Amino acid sequence: MMRVHALAAACARRAPARGYSVLADAPSPVTYTRKGPQPAAAPPAVKTVSKAASGVTVATYDHLGPQSSLAIVVNAGSRFESADAPGVAHLLKASLVRTPENDTVTRLIQEAELRGNTLYSAVSREHLVLASDFLRDDLVDVVPTLVSQVFNRSFHPYEFLDAAALTEQQTAVSLEDPATHLFEKLHQVAFRTGLGNSLFASHDALHALDRAKLQAFADKHFTADRITVVGSGVSHTELKALVDAAFADVKLSSAKAETARSRYFGGEARIDAGPHSEAHYAVTFPGVAYGSPEYNTSLVVRALLDGSKRVKWGSRGGALGLLSAAATENTTSQAVSISYSDAGLIGFHVAGKGGDVKQVVSKSLESLRSLASGVSAEALAGAKKAAIIAAEEAATRAGLVDSVGRGAAATGAFHASADVLAINNVTASDVQKLVQGALAAKPSVVALGGATLPYADEL
Amino acid sequence: MKLLESLKSLRTSKTFAAFNAWHANNMGYRKKGLRLDDLIPDEGPVVREALRRLPPHEFQERNFRFKRAIYLSLTKAELPKEEWTTAETDIAYLRPYVDLVQAEIQTKENFDTMASIPAALLQRNRSS
Q: Cα(A338)–Cα(A282) distance, rounded to whole angstroms?
């Protein structure tokens, strides 16, 4: 018996020994002793934002670790599309890595592969992102690669056609997911244009696009004031020097493309998905923007509605939140809190059996209304903790670039959420005020499913 | 070495260009309305990929030229002189794509068979 225990203990020790082998004095599969004096805690991350010589913003979050990410975040998401070229941001995302002039795209990819770097592009409602994950030492080759790709003027017809085919598939696959379809419609109902533009290029939208429209969109939006170079795990001074060098031979327009501020409308839309489909129902009210002082309050409201999501076997909507009381066996209710640079949405998303939806939606609405009349001290304290944990959790490698980019692009500084403990300053009256303000507006209601789903005026 | 130099200067000379033009006009393909790039054999994977990359209208025009040329060949005829391909319309529409595909394959092979990492790729950011 003792032997078994000893063996089990040895095996248990082996796993960390592999991970920490760099810190060990002598490599041993069973034990390790740490090499030299070790710091008791990781050094605090260095957060810096500044303007490069070319006018682009450089934001770094240096955690001093060996893994780095670099992203070129351009304020050129789907909200900036004009009415005659919908879907241009989605297609541009798919064709962001192209054959450079007098070179092949294979070299670019093989070089990245040789170093073990990744290269990916992403599009959101506000941002177009070209990013790479790499080891800290590789910064020197990542910066010119990304910059030259973003400002690549060469665009072959076949690249456009290949990207269009890929985009169409992506759209079809994405909209297969009922929740994605629901939120697409929700944005359309809530904001109509701008943030209401579809994130996905439809078949007909793609048909109306050509290379000239893509180039025109890029020319208009890839300007100095709209570009943020976001680094995580990179030294700010080094990144800035490399960015200056890479942008030296790029002709950057300093013109400012005016964009209309988002306006909230509200309304109702229904998507027929047949009687057998899983029903989805979203009710949202105008929320808060990133940079706004109420942003932390919105995180707490979300936590109040959802509760903690770390209960094993708990419901999709989380446990102990206000919405968990509304959920039934087959139907869950989840808080929705989406923030953009100048607008947001707050509310809930009900998913499950069509017959239960009406009851769950009315109960969820009651829960949300109860927040307008007051919130207990214990619930608020619990929600603050849950909000802080959720915010900490979002600070992963991928999430970090995303949040730093969004914050720096919107406000030119590190967003307050980078300092998650500020969530502790939210008071009950803040919550009450936020919810009261939201509920005063006309809701945006979207139903996806069969005919049994309630209309907005039946709630 | 001298011979090589003189050959090089010959290739860039006016006489050589004139000979080239004369030769192209006498190969016969222009009289059937074809372009030089239409004569590239299209069986291999490289040219097939290059053809896939052609803009759709170029591909349709190419097919049209082939149909016309086959018909002319069957009837042992030539196009009327004003419809012959001229030096201006004899555009290299396929060769750049073939070259691009070949370069891509060559690049991949170079990387796949790389025995040591080239110095240009070894630069690192060691300072911090």
A: 13
